[in-house]
UniProtKB/TrEMBL annotation:
It holds the Pfam family Glyco_hydro_1. SUPFAM superfamilies: (Trans)glycosidases. Its EC number is 3.2.1.86. The keyword Calcium does not apply. The active site is at residue 384. GO terms for cellular component: cytosol. One of its GO terms (molecular function) is 6-phospho-beta-glucosidase activity. This is Beta-glucosidase. Keywords: Glycosidase, Hydrolase. InterPro entries: GH, GH_1_N_CS, Glyco_hydro_1, Glyco_hydro_1_AS. Belongs to the glycosyl hydrolase 1 family.
Length: 486
């Protein structure tokens, strides 16, 4: 007789931790031979609901290069993880982290992006970081490209719009894989690769001033080059360090039909497919058929080398990771729009919103985990999820962030339910375990962390670190392997 069973909780080897990006935490933008990145030439926004990271021209880049300060470019200073990494990693260890996701800044190893040999000072810094993590038995999860390619490649060949960038990137990845062999068990190739459809921040390619069609053509061509570079990096890693695993990373934009109207249901399906297209390529190793119609109807003609499709098919990723912050609804005719983490869509009347207008939907995380597991049957990893909020440090130097605890509690509970559904989930790295510079607006006021950093939007402050209430809560969650969420 068949007696069905199912997992009751998270697996014993579940990877609890947190995630950051070099351009949002490291600082030290002009130290030890580092070159400027695409992230460090984007001015901070004056409107926190306007994401300015793609408002870039050759003129604005030159203006940024001429400005040797961090006043208008807060990602240059980050929160000085470069000099505080020992203190910060010790705090992560105190919470009980099993894994820490961080990115290696390409320009710290190859300042202009096209050098033939790496900057030894850059390698030495990441040696120190990884050694410190391993000292506390924290596993490194390294993102190879997290919105921070060398600006030199934009100026030389318009970033990923050029096929030449593939070789430059894979020279970088080969150095990383060989140098850190046996010390980094998990890698991701391109952070939120689908956001390349939005432009410069992810592709390093300055848009043409011609038609919207030309803009779309450029962006999808750049993304094709990233797909090939990702597959070749997978080939490299499997040859150099067979015990390590490499994954893709998607900004998951789960959408629901606004009504049961079949037109809305079909429109939502189209939107969801457009989001998952990127993971289809990286995990299944081929362009899905539905994109043929999209490319044809939009007159997108991708330039491919003769063996490109073979490369994609032979070297798919080992696992799939994604960020999850919010959901939207899709309607056949235009609904009221909401914005958040690159997602735009209809407003859902059943959901609350954050201070930045992002709709909070814990159940949607379970929905998307199940959908992605059914679609790919590859291990999944939630590598970003968190709440940006206006935290206040009290006079006795505490932060009572019950709203963050409530947000994370509800999302973790839904992850547990998905595991009970049968989803193979590797781990969870919440976004921003330490306060950092916001990706979308370059402000400090939008705080995610369990650790408060004394720095304001102008860069003023002591940089002293303080534990928030959520620090102790997450410590309890990890110690109980997700059982104690109270």
């Amino acid at each position: 007789m068949y007696k069905p069973t199912y997992p009751k909780t998270f697996p014993k080897d579940f990877l609890w931790g947190g995630a950051t990006a070099a351009n949002q935490v490291e600082g030290a933008w002009n130290e030890a031979g580092k070159g400027l990145t695409t992230a460090e030439v984007v001015k901070k926004t004056t409107d926190r609901k306007h994401m300015s990271m793609d408002d870039v021209t050759i003129f604005s880049i030159q203006t940024a290069l001429d400005d040797q300060t961090d006043t208008m470019y807060p990602k240059r200073r980050g929160v000085d993880f470069y000099h505080h990494y020992k203190e910060d990693i010790k705090l992560f260890a105190e919470m009980g982290f099993k894994v820490y996701r961080f990115s290696i800044a390409w320009s710290r190893l190859f300042p202009k992006g096209d050098e033939l040999k790496p900057n030894s000072d850059g390698l030495a810094f990441y040696d120190r970081v990884i050694d410190e993590l391993r000292r506390y038995h924290i596993q490194p999860l390294v993102t190879l490209s997290h919105y921070e390619m060398p600006i030199g490649l934009t100026l030389k060949q318009n970033g990923w719009a050029s096929r030449a960038t593939i070789a430059d990137f894979n020279r970088f990845t080969e150095v990383v894989f060989k140098h850190f062999k046996g010390r980094v068990p998990y890698y991701l190739t391109f952070n939120e690769i689908n956001t390349g459809t939005w432009g410069f921040h992810a592709t390093g390619a300055v848009d043409t001033e011609n038609s919207a069609h030309d803009q779309m053509q450029l962006r999808y061509q750049a993304l094709h080059h990233q797909f090939i570079a990702s597959a070749l990096a997978t080939k490299q890693l499997h040859a150099i360090d067979p015990d390590a695993k490499i994954g893709s990373m998607l900004a998951r934009m789960q959408t629901y039909p606004a009504t049961p109207n079949p037109a809305d249901v079909q429109a939502a399906q189209v939107e969801d497919d457009k989001n998952l297209f990127f993971t289809d390529v990286q995990a299944r190793g081929e362009y899905p058929e539905f994109m043929n119609r999209f490319f044809a109807e939009n007159d997108i003609q991708l330039q491919m080398a003769p063996d490109d499709q073979t490369i994609l098919a032979k070297y798919p990723v080992d696992f799939i990771s994604f960020s999850y912050y919010m959901t939207t609804v899709t309607q056949a005719d235009a609904p009221e729009q909401v914005n958040g983490n690159m997602a735009t869509g209809g407003r859902n009347p059943y959901l609350e919103e954050s201070d930045w207008g992002w709709q909070i939907d814990p159940v949607g995380l379970r929905v998307t985990l199940n959908e992605m597991w059914d679609r790919y049957r590859k291990p999944l990893f939630v590598v970003e999820n968190g709440l940006g909020a206006l935290d206040q440090l009290t006079t006795d130097q505490q932060v009572h962030d019950t709203y963050r605890i409530d947000y994370l509690r509800k999302h973790i509970a839904q992850m547990k339910a998905a595991v009970q559904d049968g989803v193979q989930l590797m781990g969870y790295t919440m976004w921003g375990p330490i306060d950092l510079i916001s990706f979308s607006t370059s402000e400090m006021s939008k705080r995610y962390g369990f650790i408060y950093v004394d720095q304001d939007d102008a860069g003023k402050g002591s940089l002293k670190r303080y534990k928030k209430d959520s620090f102790y809560w997450y410590q309890k969650v990890i110690k109980s392997n997700g059982e104690d969420l109270a």
